[in-house]
Design goal:
The chain is α/β, with parallel strands linked by helices. The protein is built from 7 helices and 8 strands; from the N terminus they run E-H-E-H-E-H-E-H-E-E-H-H-H-E-E.
Length: about 240
């Protein structure tokens, strides 16, 4: 995580939606890389079950808001961290997205991911999609303006309808690795928001391998194929931020 800083990257703001198993290592990684400003969004409070894989939290933090505790742990000179204890939804999204340079979707659950992804793309922002379930994790970096986007590859629902870490479990090592990878991708996107996507990166813990797949835009994608002012497809309201 200590490579040379991309030119201009330090001045951006990264919005991390979801401060859990993926969001805590991502935010930590971005702080270590030297990002100037982080906005951490999560409505949830820390539970004992979070502690094994959510790297910024300790037993003494149980019951406190995740975003607040993460912001406290990451505080350092040269970094502005803002905690937003609220849900990312259609009401809160405009204000949250208005100051962002890059959005990291570190949430848990298909409905939340669909909404974060679609609204961030329509706002003209690059999106880093991070997901983990069981032994597998994935990262897709989507350039500003989309093409290709997450919906191009997986459709609405992201291939995970009804699947969450809470329901099916996930390895802590997978969430940590994917979170740190998402931080590096977000750091790169700050300097090059419209560069072509580097593809879908998949970490398969069961097979002990990492693979990168080419990401191809879907000409009929319901999220990114139409004009920016086209109506969004019907999206379920998110139930949790994870």
């Amino acid at each position: 995580m200590n490579g040379p800083a991309p030119e201009g990257a330090r001045e951006g703001t990264v919005l991390v939606v979801g401060v859990g198993g993926l969001g805590t290592p991502c935010a930590w990684g971005l702080a270590e890389l030297g990002v100037a400003r982080l906005v951490l969004v999560d409505p949830d409070r820390i539970e004992p079950s979070n502690l094994p894989r959510q790297l910024l939290f300790r037993p003494v933090d149980v019951g406190r808001p995740k975003a607040v505790v993460a912001a406290e742990r990451l505080a350092r000179a040269g970094l502005v961290v803002q905690a937003r204890v609220e849900r990312f939804d259609r009401t809160t999204a405009p204000a949250l997205l208005s100051t962002a340079s890059v959005v990291v979707d570190a949430t848990d659950g298909a409905a939340t991911k669909d909404l974060v992804h679609a609204l961030a793309l329509r706002a003209g922002l690059p999106v880093v999609h991070a997901a983990a379930l069981g032994h597998e994790g994935r990262v897709l970096d989507v350039p500003a303006g989309g093409r290709p986007c997450v919906a191009c590859l997986f459709g609405i629902g992201g291939g995970e309808a009804g699947d969450t870490c809470a329901r099916f479990g996930v390895l802590g090592s997978i969430t940590a690795a994917i979170g740190f990878l998402a931080a590096q991708v977000a750091w790169d996107r700050l300097a090059r928001p419209r560069a072509p996507s580097r593809g879908l990166r998949v970490l398969d813990g069961a097979a002990g391998r990492a693979i990168t797949f080419q990401a191809v835009a879907d000409p009929r994608c319901p999220v990114c194929a139409g004009p920016p002012d086209a109506p969004l497809p019907a999206l379920a309201e998110p139930a949790a931020c994870g």
